[in-house]
Amino acid sequence: LSEIKRASPSKGDINLQINSVDQALNYANSSKNIAAISVLTEPNWFKGSIEDLRLIRLAIDSIEDRPCILRKEFIFNKYQILEARLNGADTVLLIVKMLEFSKLKELYNYSIELGMEPLVEINNIDELKLAIELNCKIIGVNNRNLNNFNVDLNTTKLIKNSLINKGDENRILISLSGIN
Q1: Local structure of 160: helix, strand or coil
Q2: In sequence order, which residues have a C-beta less than 8 Å from that of residue 21 and are 6 or more positions away?
Q3: What is the pLDDT of residue 31?
Q4: Mean pLDDT score across all residues of the chain
Q5: Three-state SS for 88?
């Protein structure tokens, strides 16, 4: 998973001048190991835009075996998912911590209806239980605690061990944040 990110709440400005299309093309052409390009579209904290997403999709669309394009945004409603799809996203991020379970389920199901298997982000065992109840296929483990921004790479190990102990090893588990 590669990422187009100009800024973040924890790191501040990273690279405000980045050409998102050039960076996406570099990712897409550099290696067959890149399965997805995460495009931050949130404008205030991450300095992204839906236009970045649209232009990236146009730029890499003709590349054979191109990476999947993920809209990384604080998704709260169906409109944002439809907007993502119409602007070239293959999938979206749904953050368990930010949504009531009924809303999470509604948005997950809507994404599936649009042909997108969402990346469901969790940070702890309680959120894992909700992701399992949702029956999601792809779980992103955020190693950064969103309350205090501390990073603990053992978070992914804890979640992975919990899935193994439940005999639930068929989901795709992605470790997010804190990896250099």
Answers
A1: helix
A2: 55, 56, 59
A3: 63
A4: 92
A5: coil
